[in-house]
Amino acid sequence: MEGEEENRLYFGDNLDILQRYIASESVDLVYLDPPFNSDATYNVLFREHNGTDAAAQIRVFEDTWHWDLSAARAYQETVEAGGKVSEALQAFRKLVGDSDMLAYVSMMAPRLKELHRVLKPTGSIYLHCDPTASHYLKLLMDAVFVGGFQSEVIWSYRRWPTKTKNYQHMHDILLYYVKGRPPVFNVLYEPASESFLHRFKGKANILDKGATKKRPSEKDTPGLPMRDVWEISIIAGSSKERLGYPTQKPLALLERVIEVSSNRDQVVLDPFCGCGTTIDAAQKLGRGWIGIDITHLAINLLRHRLCDAYGEGIYKTFTVIGEPTTVSDARVLAERDRYQFQWWALGLVGARPAETKKGADKGIDGRLYFHDDPGSQKTKQIVFSVKAGKPSVAHVRDLRGVVEREQAEMGVMISMLSPTKDMRTEAANAGFYESSWGKHPRIQLLTISDLLAGKHIDMPPATGANVTFKKGRKNSPDSPLQMRLRETEEGYGADSELNLYR
Ligand SMILES: C[S@@+](CC[C@H](N)C(=O)[O-])C[C@H]1O[C@@H](n2cnc3c(N)ncnc32)[C@H](O)[C@@H]1O
């Protein structure tokens, strides 16, 4: 890897992480897919124990910025720093007033400036957005990457039509800019249409002159240089690739970006990495990578995704930074954000957060599903209660009740503080769950300190027993690029002379 850097996954706000940890001119390619200001709140879908996806009402992130004090502060700081970005923000304010759109661009401005700083002079950046904000973001990018505009790539897809008295929205936009010159740009080709092959008999590609008598077969020609309109299917509901992360992008899209704008061993950064499509694609294509996300859910999904695709050995090849590593870090997290603390704590034991729908899953903070009977494949479960504050014997009693109500095999309480003697007695009175591996306490009390010291849940140890997270795809060896392109391209209507590209 260039610079011998290890791959890194950061938990935290990308502005802070970029400023604190990422060196200037150290990255070759940035892809970012920030929340779109579309006023949606996303929920992560998890795999239910019966194999279906359940809409666990877990808010991943608010896809909205409101014009509030922190937006006003971000605006002020960028404006006071001066320069073109400052002028752009002031112009936006005149245009859109103190609106959520102004909050959005004010939040993006300092992040884009940081991304400019960390890119190498030959680096490229792709900003993924949609028509809600693309016109504002393009002006902002013009201000940050002065003279760097290269292309506006349209990612075109088809999906089930929605009820609207407007055109169906079926494309996203990737604003492609470079920092300086010459950027890495590996020309890719897409298959030519039948009519083109017929008309330009024998030309190796569209740029060649002269012709032969024999009509070329598709394999004789590299095809046509790729357009800025990409037909790539969205991830279907039934697709193996789908992990349930609401804004997950197709791997094929990210593979294309990475293949065009970076070379092997170069470093790819995704500061809004979500469930890690960019990271997966970079790993697959032999690039180094850096991922950042602000939720523990995303970081946990990404860990599982990498392990599913590349095996457990992958864990040795990257570092996770920003997660609590000491009890006092954990306390700070618990005080700052109870949900993030829960997600992080549940991630330590491979469990997933429970639904937070009103009335549902009362008394349960997380679940872990497991198989311990190869003969029947029956799914069994452990329910979790996570206590950031002071735990009591009443909490243990409640957990016993939940285990019975849910017909779960075991219940685990994870707490910041050590359990009292009464709590231990109450837990011991719950008895054992018996598997072919032995007896496992039905109620287990673990502290954060236990978990950080490497203590595990006492549960059946079979490999693959934990089936809590939806399995990602197993990595398969690269198929030839053109084949992959063909698989993802969709037809474009009649085969006319103008229809050179399919
Ligand atoms: C649109 S999703 C990215 C999806 C991703 N491309 C994928 O394929 O999974 C945006 C992500 O940005 C994260 N995010 C939002 N604000 C952030 C911030 N300030 N710093 C870091 N990550 C942030 C969210 O948690 C979410 O996972």
Highlighted features:
single chain; 502 residues; alpha/beta; Rossmann fold; Trna Endonuclease, Chain: A, domain 1; 3 domains; nine-stranded mixed beta sheet; 15 helices; 22 strands; 32% helix; 21% strand; globular; binds S-adenosylmethionine
Describe this structure in words.
The chain contains 15 helices and 22 strands. It is of the alpha/beta class and 502 residues long. The protein folds into three domains: 22-188 and 226-268, 3-Layer(aba) Sandwich (Rossmann fold), CATH 3.40.50; 192-224 and 479-502, no CATH class; 327-452, 3-Layer(aba) Sandwich (Trna Endonuclease, Chain: A, domain 1). A nine-stranded mixed sheet has the order 12-8-9-7-2-13-14-1-15, sandwiched between helices. The longest helix has 19 residues, at 100-118. It starts with 6 loop residues before the first strand and ends in a 14-residue tail after the last helix. Mean pLDDT is 84; it is low at 477-499. The site of S-adenosylmethionine (SAM) has 19 residues, from strand 6 and strand 14.
N-to-C span: 37 Å
CATH architecture of the largest domain: 3-Layer(aba) Sandwich
Task: Report the principal-axis shape.
Answer: globular
* Total DSSP E strands: 22
Average of per-residue pLDDT values: 84
| Rg over alpha carbons | 26 Å
| CATH-defined fold name of the largest domain | Rossmann fold
Query: What is the SS-derived class?
Result: alpha/beta
In total, how many domains does the architecture comprise? 3
Fourth CATH level, the homologous superfamily of the largest domain: Vaccinia Virus protein VP39
Query: Numbering strands along the chain, what is their spatial order in the largest sheet?
Result: 12-8-9-7-2-13-14-1-15
Question: Can you give the helix content as a percent range?
Answer: 25-40%
Largest sheet report: 9 strands, mixed
